[in-house]
Amino acid sequence: MASALYQSIELLSREKGIDPEIVVGAVEDAIALATRKYYKTQENMRGELDRESGEIRAYVFKTVVDAPEQIEDVDNQLSLEQARELAPEVEVGGELRFYKDTTPLGRIAAQMAKQVIFQKVREAERDTVFLEYGSRSGEILTATVKRLEPMDVIFDLGKAEARMPKREQSRLEQFSVGERIRVVLLRVDRAAKGPQVIVSRAAPGLVQSLFQSEVPEIYDGTVVVRAIAREAGERTKIAVMSRDKDVDPVGACVGMKGMRVQSIIRELRGEKIDIIEFSEEITTFAEKALQPAKVSRVSITDLGEKQIEVIVDDTQLSLAIGKKGQNVRLAAKLLGWKIDIKSEEEKRQEVEQQMQAMTGGPSTPIEQVTELGESVMEKLIAAGITTVESLADMTEEELGEVPGIGDKSVEKIALAVRHYFEKLDEAAVGSDAAAPIPEPVLVAGEEAVAAGAASDEAGDEIHSMTKTPEEILAAQAAEAGGAEEVDTISTEEIAEAEDAISGSDANDAADAREERIELDNDTMDELVDQAGDVSSEGIDDGDNDPGSRA
Fold this sequence. Notes:
Blueprint: H1 4-16, H2 20-39, E1 45-49, E2 56-65, E3 77-79, H3 80-86, E4 95-100, H4 107-133, E5 140-148, E6 153-156, E7 161-164, E8 180-191, E9 194-200, H5 204-214, H6 216-219, E10 223-231, E11 235-242, H7 249-254, H8 259-267, E12 272-277, H9 282-289, E13 295-302, E14 307-312, H10 317-321, H11 326-335, E15 338-343, H12 344-358, H13 374-382, H14 388-393, H15 396-400, H16 407-433, H17 445-464, H18 469-479, H19 491-502, H20 506-541, H21 546-549
Parallel strand pairs: 2-3, 7-9, 11-12, 14-15
Antiparallel strand pairs: 1-2, 2-4, 5-6, 5-8, 6-7, 8-9, 10-11, 13-14
Helix pairs in contact: 1-2, 2-4, 5-8, 9-11, 18-20, 19-20
């Protein structure tokens, strides 16, 4: 029957999950160390535990050599002749034991032995933990919250403790002691204090495991999860495909009325999940990965670097990018490609710039900016800046990097360029205002005379609009050669009309104004008719003298 001491060792071994022989070895090493310390010797010492009686013994062992001249360590070796005096059957290479009395070992020796035993047990625990969890990376474990630390959460896995750092936690989750949750085993770190099991609730593998447990089609392999991109606590994008053409992969993951995906969302404390159908065609896959935004077109810009360009409508740009770039960032992780997303307007401007660059674009020599000065201009030309356009496109930081250009020179250059373009704008406005009026084309013969008469009539009509009635009548009378038949408006009538307008009676003023306008119109018609008759007589007679027309 085993002793009480050995039974206690077996019980301890079961609790710690280690081999009982490891604990027995730790006890024997502790007794040997304590005995050596007590006797203050450097001899080789061993401990021995009797499992039946529970007795602990310590002994010194010495190795047997052939001859006395071969002895190198007097304390731990003896010759064959000396050994056979103590044990006749001993051979070379054998060992002789010399037991030490452990009765006088006191409290200090016992405390030392206790520390050695604890150290050996801890080392055995660490080895057991590493062997248990070292090869289970990525596995889903059910753990119990043991305690909450300021930054970490400590879980009890049964055989060991696990730690979840802050970066592996979801911002939506809060834990309480004793709560049982599922975690992902990330790795086992062999630290100085022993192996540490690191678990996570932010790893994409957790979402995949939850889908596998909730969706039978994923569990049996009909639907395959091809890619997952996750930002814990915010959003997850998962790409699935079906091996059976009759099974809709997205519908299988969503479930009837969304029951399957809703249970996963509850497990993740409300994290949003986008389920996307996988496609081997990268452009099609990119359009689906950027949902809910609608993509106009996708093109591959660099196949080697795995870079694509996505064009969306101006109204869809913010939705495609997402909050703080989250949507496009998750889509890029899901695809494994770099995504350059642009709006239709940005793409149009880019194409225009490319076309302008192909045609050469406007280029004005930098010498046109006379305010720069010769020294500054030479420094700019030496730096490769030879056109006004390239100088105007440079920022103050870029100008400051030009050799020999300081802060004051930067200000001077900016002022000179601004003045140059202001002068161009003023010149453009002045040229538009000073555009010449085209001169009338002269023709010969009768057509010239008719054209001249028409031009005179049009000119007189325009000129009359800017003259007073007296000036109009005087001009028409002079043109008609002072004809007595022409009726005129007397100055008295004009004065009466003006007095009526300036008077307090508004109705009389209006009547006077209408009477004056009717009189002007009738007089104008008569004058035009008479002038036409006179002009006709002058042309028929071939006499250009105004006196003859009268």
